Amino acid sequence: MRRGLAVLALSLLHSFALSLFAQTTRNGVGPEQRYYAVHSFADDWLVYDEAAKAYVPYLPEIHADAPAVSASIDLESNRHYQLLLYTDTDTYVFINAALKKQLLGGRWYTFSIDSLYNAYRQPRVLLSIYGSAGVAGKQMIMGYPKSILQKPVVLSDDNLSVRPRTFSVYQNFFGLGLLFLLAIHALLFSLYRRAFLVLYDPRDLFALRVRDESFLINRPLSRTVLLFLLSLSFVMGYLFLFVQSRNVNVFSSRTLLLDQQNFGALLLYYLLVSVLVFLSFLGKYLMLQVVGSLYRFESVVNIHFFKVVQSSLLFFTAIGFLATIVIFNGPTIENLTNYLLIPFTVFYLVRLVLLYLVIRAQAPIKSLYLISYLCIVELVPLLIGVRFAL
């Protein structure tokens, strides 16, 4: 009998809680009740346990006097939502242990999940509220803004929770981008087959004796070379967005790229990065001309530029192929930066040695002058680039 009464009491309490949540869902939450409640963090609070050296679930009997409470916010799964915060006393908000904002008591505050994701580039962040004991008077809700033109939606079943389907704009972009790159390379192979076979030949790359009268070398800014440079720029732009999609910001790309992540914005980013890469190659050739004239290396400048273009085409095309496998078939790679540094460092060091051997075989140049020339045009830009990339 007592067991039956206990079950009945629990059922009544559960029904009462569901009715309160359903009423809140219908009426709205947050400032002026302008948001639909997606998820409440009332049962997700955490506190830091000094003994365990870790965050543990909040228990009113133990942590009622805790000066700070925290919650893990899933940014990746809650894109386009708003995080709503309310405290009845003045408190401070910390995100990943860094002070974010002061909250005045008795007011609602909203944080855009998209903005937080773009700022931190992490799937989850730890939000902490410091300044008052326990969780009394604190509310944190994941909400979705109501539309002014939207008609009220009446749910027939209060237990049903419907959320927008998550989708990956990057995935769609990479699929079309791959087709675009394949079309460009197929067109170059059809129109400039001889140049294609030379530029993409590893044996020709490592050949120390170079024919400087070759049409690809003696005319470095010809239409053929510029078209292959443009295709290389498209490949590098593709790789740039691939790295960006894995939350690795290269050259402060958060300030370079816009905040939107729809397909049109990604296409704009792609064209912008590709144009910048293309202009950087032209700037490198201009730098080779200037430094080469200072060292009186005019005869090897074109060979140097040709080897740079040829090695870059082979390396970045191979990296692009591996990136495509990872995008469509491979698992998510944690700490991608560590995996990027090794192949890129090896590539630039091997290319530096190759350039030294090729130029040394072309003309009787003193090694000290040649090393100084290569350090200025190869190592210094590389060191500066690594400094700003990391």
TrEMBL record:
Residues 1-22 form the signal peptide. Keywords: Membrane, Signal, Transmembrane, Transmembrane helix. The keyword Signal applies. It comes from the Bacteria. The chain crosses the membrane at residues 173-192, 225-243, 263-287, 308-328, 340-359, 368-389. This is DUF4271 domain-containing protein. It comes from Rudanella paleaurantiibacter.
